[in-house]
Amino acid sequence: MSAKEGTPEAERQEEERREKAANERGLVVATWILALVTGLLFLAAAIQAGLFVWQLGYMREGMKDATTAARASKESAETAKLQAEIASGTLQTMRDIAERQLRAYVGISGSSIADVQTGAPMATVIIKNFGQTPAYDVEAWIHLWVAEHPLNEVLPDAPPEMKKAKGTLYPGSTLIFQMPKDPPVKKEYIHLLGTSEGTIYVYGGIIYRDIFNNRRFTKYRLIYGGPHGMTGNLMGNDREGNEAN
């Protein structure tokens, strides 16, 4: 049963109806506002997540760039080290070449032997500086010995009392050494001189200092006789006993 229009009861019911409708409208509005706020929050979260993903990707690219830069820096350092080693090696090679070209080279430029038939042969040896710079503090000696060939004994060194040449030998300059057989060979053995049984050994040594302050040496051993026999007044190199630095 509804209240009659215009009565207090009808007015009360109308008021309740209007209040209920207002509440429902408020609830709908609140629901829409909540949905909107929720959507905005979701959008903000999505944007933040997107920014995080972008930032992470950017950081990864940065790390890649940093790794690439570090690798490039390492490779550059290794390349620079290799180039420095090559330059150092090239410089040392150039120095070695220059030293070989400019240093003194002292060796034998000629030799001969005379008076073999007398039993007192006289050996002559000429040493020369074949280099382009002087040889300093040159010391040289020569000795003569008669023995079988090939040798079955050790040739003696120069006697302590033997005079040795000393001085400076300039480029192209020579020194002449002569050494007689003293005492002479006994008469009954003279016919063996210049053969394998009586080979004449002429040997000696040269030490000197080059312009680069390096100590150098030359050892020589010449023979008259041996496996080739006698050839005029010429001597030849023995198979051993000839070396130099």
Describe the structure.
It is a single chain. The chain has 245 residues and is α+β, with helices and mostly antiparallel strands. It has two domains: 1-102; 106-244, Immunoglobulins (Immunoglobulin-like). The chain is built from one helix and nine strands; from the N terminus they run αβββββββββ. Strand 1 and strand 2 form a beta hairpin.
The CATH topology of the largest domain: Immunoglobulin-like
Quote the distance from N terminus to C terminus.
Answer: 140 Å
Structural domains: how many: 2
Count the helices. How many? 1
Derived from helix and strand composition plus strand pairing, the structural class reads: alpha+beta
- Strands, count: 9
Share of residues in helices: 25-40%
CATH class of the largest domain: Mainly Beta
- The dominant shape is rod-shaped
What's this entry about, in short?
The chain has one helix at about 10-100; strands at about 105-115, 120-130, 135-145, 165-170, 175-180, 200-210, 215-225, 235, 245. By secondary structure, it is an alpha+beta fold.
